[in-house]
Amino acid sequence: MVTKLGEPITDESSAEDTYTPDPPLSEIDPLGSDAGAPLERPKILTLDDIDEVHDLETATVFISEWGGAVRIRALERGEIKRIHKAATDRNGKMDLDRVEQMMVCWASIEPKFNPPAYAMLAKKNAGAVSKMLQAIAGLSGVDDESLEAARANFRD
């Protein structure tokens, strides 16, 4: 099902291709209580609980300009930090192209992009590439504010 072009879609044939935002805390009802009943507090997790959960989503993103879809995955927090560090120079300026290249190369599943394949995207529709980057950022929990800060510090 496609909600908007460029947003992650669910592939009915694969259970791992899902992207569903978490409900607000006020809607969490782990005990399935009846309407009007008080909601139960969610379980407080242990460090082991957090370590064992698989929270790196994958998604299939339809790119209308290319007439098909790409498969991507969420980036780990450590990967995001390595990307920012690798793309920032001694003066604190961030190379946005380097950030985007690393995001696409590390988060792509199918097709799997490498730096030479990423270079090909320079000749492609900017909106199509942007759809893929926005989907990666969304899955990875990188907010628009972080992306805007990177753009503001972009090295010319």
Describe this structure in words.
- By secondary structure, this protein is α+β, with helices and mostly antiparallel strands.
- It has a domain at 8-21 and 58-152: rbstp2171.
- Helix content is 37%, strand content 11%.
- It is built from six helices and four strands, in the order βαββααβααα.
- It has a four-stranded antiparallel sheet.
- α3 crosses α5 (126-140).
- The model is unreliable at 1-5 and 10-20 (pLDDT under 50).
Roughly how much helix do the residues carry, as a percent range?
25-40%
Helix and strand sequence:
EHEEHHEHHH
Structural class: alpha+beta
The N- and C-terminal alpha carbons lie at a distance of 39 Å
- Unreliable spans: 1-5, 10-20
Strand order of the largest sheet: 1-2-3-4
Instruction: Quickly name the level 1 CATH class of the domain at 8-21 and 58-152.
Output: Alpha Beta
Arithmetic mean of pLDDT: 80
Percent of sequence in beta strands: 5-15%
In CATH terms, what is the fold-level topology of the domain at 8-21 and 58-152? rbstp2171
Q: Main β-sheet, in a few words?
A: 4 strands, antiparallel
Number of strand elements: 4
**Which overall shape is indicated by the principal axes computed on the Cα atoms?**
globular
Tally of separate helices: 6
Computed over alpha carbons, the radius of gyration is 18 Å
